[in-house]
Amino acid sequence: MTQIAVLPGDGIGPEVTAAAVRVLRAVLPSCSFVEAPVGAAAIASHGTPLPEETLAAARASDAILFGAVGGPGFDDRAPALRPEAAILGLRKIFGLYANIRPARAFAGLEACSPLRAERVRGMDLIIVRELTGGLYFGPKSLEPEDGVMTARDTLVYRDFEIERVARFAFTVARGRRKHLTSVDKNNVMISSQLWRRVVSAVAFDYPDVTLEHMLADNAAMQLVRDPRAFDVVVTENMFGDILSDEAAMIAGTIGTASSASLGADPQTPSFGLYEPISGTAPDIAGKNVANPAAAILSAALLARFSLGDEAAAARIEAAVAHVLEHGPRTADLQAAGDAPAATTTAVADAIVAQLTPLAASSARG
Ligand code: IPM
Ligand code: MG
Asked: What residues contact residue 116 under an 8 Å CB cut-off, 6+ apart?
């Protein structure tokens, strides 16, 4: 039987994850769920951001549905003792090297984008962020050197790490508009020179996909200038972290930004971790106002990439798209003069209600 590990974490994590679990229960009634603590919540209950029992629950499951981690009061802690160590640890331990981050302008949300509607309408891109290497995982240090306090983060890439995420991204591009933009900082960084060389070599195996190289600073600019020009983007861990927040906001809100983290070919169902990319959003946490769409769309990706259930994924995505277009809407999607914003639970109710007719007909049939 299919089991999903639910790791709600901190901030808005528990609220939006609960909404995603409701949707999964409606679409996949035979699925079971096991909840476990992560992040600041786990530091409070277990003294560590990623307790052994949480890892065990994840290992015993087919996929992880993840909320968010982080919180106040940890700023001076060493990285390994912060809530964020939980998500970085899960990615590393399960070898989830490829992170799919779609950014799509949903119909009806054009007015939410900081760009004019005609620039954003039709935007539909995927950022494939390398997730277990690069700047976030290289050796770190903070110590006096020659009497000067010195901090180091190290950007390390091995050729095979670049090659596997490049193959992953070419495969994703092959299933779409066959255009891949590889983002690096080849003019400054030696790691980017290797990145560009390896991606260019992999391209020979995907002659049907057009490959373009772009410097990271230029990519940040081109994304705002013409987001519709992008199809699939592949890039280093930190560049992907930054560009995916930018792309989400251009699409209208980070409240619809879902993600899938995988460790194998995207065409074969495999273990993965699914999370909204927004983080904990402490300013709105616990108020039942966060947009649950990103978590629910992440659940759709879970059905697609870990369960191989394309029909379930498509049903969830259609229900979310319908509610985003017709409402109810959370505050992040409200324009001045709109009806009062809906709560997280009201939006989740509406999405579940959109699923129901299909569920009923398939139960009859
Ligand atoms: C993300 C987040 C995480 C990251 C943090 C919480 C460690 O920003 O998933 O984008 O940097 O990867
Ligand atoms: Mg981020």
From this structure: none
Angle at the Cα of 60 from the Cα atoms of 56 and 63, rounded to 5 degrees: 105
Residue of the CA atom closest to atom 1 of ligand 1? 277
Distance, CA 88 to ligand 1 centroid (Å)? 8
Q: Which of 10, 157, 184, 185 is catalytic?
A: 185
pTM: 0.96
Nearest-angstrom CA–CA distance, 85 and 26: 32
- Annotated catalytic, 10? no
165 lines ligand 1 (CB under 6 A): no
Q: Round to whole Å and give the CA distance between 52 and 60.
A: 12
Q: Residues 123, 105: contact at Cβ < 8 Å?
A: yes
Q: What is the CATH number assigned to the segment(s) 98-262? A: 3.40.718.10
Does 323 contact ligand 1 (Cβ within 6 A)?
A: no
CATH of domain 1-97+275-365: 3.40.718.10
Distance set, CA 304 to CA 18, 84, 309 (Å): 19, 26, 5
Establish whether 245 is a catalytic residue: yes
Whether 217 is catalytic: yes
Ligand nearest to the CA of 242: 2
Is 136 among the residues known to form the active site? Answer: yes
Residue 279 CB less than 6 A away from ligand 1: yes
In order along its 365 residues, the chain shows pLDDT tens digits of 899 999 999 999 999 999 999 999 999 999 999 999 999 999 999 999 999 999 999 999 999 999 999 999 999 899 899 999 999 999 999 999 999 999 999 999 999 999 999 999 999 999 999 999 999 999 999 999 999 999 999 999 999 999 999 999 999 999 999 999 999 999 999 999 999 999 999 999 999 999 999 999 999 999 999 999 999 999 999 999 999 999 999 999 999 999 999 999 999 999 999 999 989 999 999 999 999 999 999 999 999 999 999 999 999 999 999 999 999 999 999 876 677 899 999 999 999 999 965 544 444 43
Closest Cα to residue 68, out of 32, 109, 113, 18?
A: 18
- Alpha-carbon distance of 309 to 295, in angstroms, equals 18
